[in-house]
Amino acid sequence: MAAKEQKIITFAWQGKDKSGNLSKGKIDAPDIATAKANLRKQGILPKRVAKDSSFSLLGEKNKPIKPVDIAYFTRQLATMLKSGVPLLQGMEIVGNGTEKVALKRLINQIRQSVSGGSDLGQSLRAHPKFFDDLFCSLVEAGEESGALEQMLDRIATYKEKTESLKAKIKKAMTYPAAVLVVGLIVSAILLVKVVPTFQGIFASFGAELPAFTMFVIGLSEVAQAYWYIALFAIIIGSFVFVRLKRNSQAFADFVDRAVLKVPVIGGILHKGAIARFARTLATTFAAGVPLVEALDSAAGASGNVVYRNAIIQIRNGVSTGQSLQNAVNMTGVFPNMTAQMIAIGEEAGSLDMMLDKVATFYEEEVDNAVDNLSSLIEPLIMAILGVLVGGLVIAMYLPIFQLGNVV
Length: 407
Fold this sequence. Notes:
By secondary structure, this protein is mainly alpha-helical. The protein folds into three domains: 9-51; 67-162, Up-down Bundle (Receptor-associated Protein); 165-406, Receptor-associated Protein (Up-down Bundle). It contains 16 helices and three strands. It has helices at residues 32-41, 67-82, 87-97, 101-115, 120-125, 133-145, 148-203, 211-247, 249-259, 265-286, 291-300, 305-319, 324-331, 336-348, 351-401, 403-406; strands at 9-16, 22-29, 45-51. The protein has a three-stranded antiparallel sheet. A hairpin with a 5-residue loop joins strand 1 (9-16) and strand 2 (22-29). The N and C termini lie far apart (93 Å).
């Protein structure tokens, strides 16, 4: 029966050092008794030891583990092993070097498992939420070949590049949406709070209001009467969308296909999927994973059903004896340049290098596309905000401009 994993807690302490001077600091330990014992080992006489409450639930130390944290752990561990530091000591150093409690706890649990006799790959598989099958398989391949430090370095590079790519794609999709949402919120506030004030003023004019102003007043009356229904519909709609996407594969596939057809954004997603395919295949193939298995990993990491199905089709073709280039061409999804680079790699016996070049090229394409999108979309967003907010302001001031005619 496996030993129960210890929970690591951060304690704040006050005490005296070897010179008798008052000192204070923080220490991580599973309980207060262990914390005091560790302080005494460091030559500190503890006077007060208590759980650290300096960070709120939203503090950095209490934030959940993210993929970028796993990339950091992998990179740091690879650096330690390359420097000749033993695996267990390397994990201890990396764990002590992070401020995030959840990550420190995870590293400690892995270290305890390895010190108990398990391989690193087996220890990582006990935490599938943070280490997927591809990650664990590559680590196991590194352990079997005796080149764990090189494999961890390769995995770290893979994780860093894929997370960077995800961040760029996320920026491309969220930036325009966020600005438009702000514009809609400002417009809603104007309709519900500001327009009614002007409406009361217009009632005393005793003149017919411009058609545009009447239209805006009508919108305001609808917004005042039904704003809570609209808000409720947006919340429920968002909840239903997220639940359907998470629980219905058919709906998730429909969304995947639809977003690829969105102007500009779709092109970025296409390039991102090709970059992930090439990067994953290059990493796994270079690690000595058979091509068919490497394609399975690439399909799982594609991030879009269109490319996942295409890669599965490639895998089926390769498993029946087709060359990788022909199988890629048969899908009709990948651009000709990708197929040509793969063909050169197959002929020269350097497929992993060519795939790495393809991945780098499309990652740079995504980077440039995101930068271009930001510069191109800003004038468009300003125009939309101008129409929304400026139109409301103009509608409210039109009667004032025409007040001279009434007088």
